[in-house]
């Protein structure tokens, strides 16, 4: 029987190794709405540790520590996999098949865990990384960076596409004093997402895709999708939004034929992309019959944002956090400031 004890990374190997963004990084991010960081920022050992932590999480095996931040369980879990836990790393060759996949290729669901950092110590180290927070600060110019959510997407072999959408429409925050570069964002609040590949990405796996420049489209288009999973045209919401853009110079600004989509195919595991919350993105189906596609998105805001209580009360995701209608402050324990570090650590 496989051990349920999670492996530990070497103390001599940093979890995240990342330099500050360069002027060209900032320019590309502002122009395209995303930035591809192809050089791995996580060590292979840490990626193995995270993938094993996912195997434990989908079986309802959560890390419990006295006083653990976040409550010890995810905000959204998946139906528990009942198969035996695979052996832990380190692996001499390729890891065993992931996610308890049973070789059933019919109606395979893409799995999602929300805020796995609350239930997994390896993911806590990743999601609350001050190195990632510093990179986001250098890319955006924000004086402080707060994590508001992580979302882990697990696409087993033969699982369906993830429909295009914008992240911003799912977050109910406002700013009393908008940061100048974010003033044109809804309520003066900008959302930025780091998406980290936990498998080597290629076209067959259905990697993340971006609609280039779509963060500049009309902010009135929220880009929320009633269903994340698509079996037909997973890009349809981006096509629909582009067609509604006002004309430029008498010609349609964005037609279906003129749209440019960029795939994150080629990203090695442990590398990442960063995107603006107004950038349309999604991913195709996992066409592999044997390989899984795993990735985790970390959503950031400035440290000084507040709840838009009226909107948050309407949300299944956020209403639990705004029971006190008079307090607009975000709880630092549940929505931690990751940059600058506090008292020398996150």
UniProtKB/TrEMBL annotation:
Residues 1-12 have a biased composition (Polar residues). Residues 1-28 are annotated as: Disordered. GO terms for molecular function: metal ion binding; oxidoreductase activity. Pfam families: PhyH (PF05721). It comes from the Eukaryota. Its cofactor is Fe cation. This is Phytanoyl-CoA dioxygenase. It comes from Triparma columacea. The lineage of its organism: Eukaryota, Sar, Stramenopiles, Ochrophyta, Bolidophyceae.
């Amino acid at each position: 029987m496989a051990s349920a004890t999670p492996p530990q990374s070497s103390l001599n190997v940093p979890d995240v190794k990342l330099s500050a963004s360069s002027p060209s990084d900032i320019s590309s991010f502002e122009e395209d709405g995303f930035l591809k960081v192809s050089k791995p920022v996580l060590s292979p050992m840490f990626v193995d540790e995270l993938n094993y932590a996912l195997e434990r999480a989908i079986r309802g095996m959560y890390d419990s520590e006295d006083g653990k931040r976040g409550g010890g369980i995810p905000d959204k879990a998946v139906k528990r996999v009942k198969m035996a836990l695979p052996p832990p790393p380190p692996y001499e060759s390729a890891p065993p098949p992931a996610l308890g996949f049973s070789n059933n290729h019919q109606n395979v669901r893409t799995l999602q865990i929300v805020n796995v950092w609350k239930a997994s110590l390896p993911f806590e180290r990743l999601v609350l990384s001050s190195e990632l927070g510093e990179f986001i600060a250098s890319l955006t110019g924000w004086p402080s960076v707060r994590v508001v959510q992580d979302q882990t997407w697990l696409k087993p072999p033969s699982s369906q596409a993830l429909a295009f959408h914008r992240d911003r429409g799912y977050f109910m925050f406002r700013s009393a004093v908008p940061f100048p570069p974010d003033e044109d964002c809804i309520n003066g609040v900008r959302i930025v997402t780091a998406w980290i590949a936990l498998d080597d990405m290629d076209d067959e796996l259905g990697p993340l895709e971006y609609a280039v420049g779509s963060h500049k489209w009309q902010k009135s288009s929220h880009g929320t999708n009633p269903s994340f999973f698509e079996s037909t045209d997973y890009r349809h919401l981006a096509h629909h939004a582009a067609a509604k853009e006002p004309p430029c110079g008498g010609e349609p600004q964005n037609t279906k034929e003129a749209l440019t989509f960029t795939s994150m195919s080629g990203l090695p595991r442990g590398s990442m992309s960063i995107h603006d919350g107004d950038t349309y993105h999604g991913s195709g189906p996992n066409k592999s019959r044997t390989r899984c596609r795993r990735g985790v998105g970390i959503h950031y805001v400035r440290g000084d944002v507040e709840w838009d209580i009226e909107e948050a009360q309407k949300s299944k995701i956020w209403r639990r956090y705004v029971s006190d209608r008079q307090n607009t402050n975000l709880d630092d324990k549940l929505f931690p400031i990751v940059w600058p570090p506090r008292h020398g650590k996150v």
